[in-house]
């Protein structure tokens, strides 16, 4: 025969568990809604403040899964599961994963630094690790470049954030140093004057700053003249080609 006290105890436990279960379900539903609402609101605010879209998407995912993780812990805690040991296990697992992914974490932190401090942006022409190319995408772990011969190069962000980056696009103009060699039997003064006329009349060479011409070297059979001229970033190669062609036809 079942004891009345036992029935009362079972009844109390059933009521308590039912309340906890309903509360857990409510926490889950509200938590899921909050994760979506807070994520969308944060994304909208960041976009309105012109934050880099790569960082916006990363923060969106981070906030979304952080809230869901907290909701999960709150739900299982309400159902009577001991969460302290669970959190300790997660912490230990996170440490183990972190140690095994040190390189990836370096690239991850490098991506954050690039997005925050913006040493370059999508569309810029940069030079890094011996590669020169146009930035196509900035991902959280790597940056995608397209080189002049249409090859795609992925540079780890850890390397980018810790190394030297030359940005060819931050300034609209650049100084070009062109060196031209001539036979030693040609008159240096006359050759310099002819080259000066070509430089001054070239439409792609800027007048300010003023271009300069120097004697770079004098050897046994040749001498060299150095032209320092300012152009738009994209015009340097064309200017050198034009000057070479004009000198050849003199």
From TrEMBL:
Keyword terms, alphabetized: Cell membrane, Membrane, Transmembrane, Transmembrane helix
Domain Mechanosensitive ion channel MscS C-terminal: 177-243
Classification via InterPro entries: LSM_dom_sf (IPR010920), MS_channel_1st (IPR049142), MS_channel_C (IPR049278), MSC_TM_helix (IPR008910), MscS_archaea/bacteria_type (IPR045275), MscS_beta-dom_sf (IPR023408), MscS_channel_2nd (IPR006685), MscS_channel_C_sf (IPR011066)
Residue ranges crossing the lipid bilayer per the database entry: 14-34, 62-81, 87-117
Compartments it resides in: Cell membrane
Keyword Transmembrane: yes
GO molecular function: mechanosensitive monoatomic ion channel activity
One GO location term (cellular component): plasma membrane
Domain called Mechanosensitive ion channel MscS: residue spans: 104-169
Domain of life: Bacteria
Family as reported in the entry's similarity comment: Belongs to the MscS (TC 1.A.23) family.
Protein name, UniProt field: Mechanosensitive ion channel protein
């Amino acid at each position: 025969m079942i004891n009345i006290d036992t029935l009362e105890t079972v009844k109390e436990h059933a009521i308590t568990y039912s309340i906890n279960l309903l509360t857990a379900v409510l926490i889950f539903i509200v938590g899921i809604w909050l994760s979506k609402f807070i994520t969308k609101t944060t994304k909208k605010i960041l976009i309105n403040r012109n934050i880099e879209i790569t960082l916006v998407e990363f923060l969106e995912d981070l906030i979304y899964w952080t809230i869901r993780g907290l909701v999960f812990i709150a739900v299982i805690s309400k159902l009577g599961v001991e969460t302290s040991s669970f959190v300790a296990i997660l912490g230990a697992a996170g440490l183990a994963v972190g140690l095994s992914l040190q390189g990836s974490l370096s690239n991850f932190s490098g991506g954050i630094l690039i997005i925050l401090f913006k040493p370059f942006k999508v569309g810029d022409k940069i030079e890094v690790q011996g590669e020169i190319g146009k930035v196509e995408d900035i991902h959280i772990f790597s940056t995608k470049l397209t080189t002049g011969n249409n090859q795609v190069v992925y540079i780890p962000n850890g390397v980018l954030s810790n190394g030297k980056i030359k940005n060819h696009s931050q300034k609209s103009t650049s100084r070009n140093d062109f060196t031209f060699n001539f036979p030693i039997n040609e008159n240096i003064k006359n050759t310099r004057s002819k080259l000066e006329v070509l430089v001054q009349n070239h439409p792609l060479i800027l007048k300010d700053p003023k271009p300069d011409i120097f004697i770079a070297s004098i050897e046994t059979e040749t001498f060299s003249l150095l032209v320092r001229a300012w152009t738009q970033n994209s015009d340097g190669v064309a200017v050198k080609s034009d000057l070479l062609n004009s000198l050849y036809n003199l």
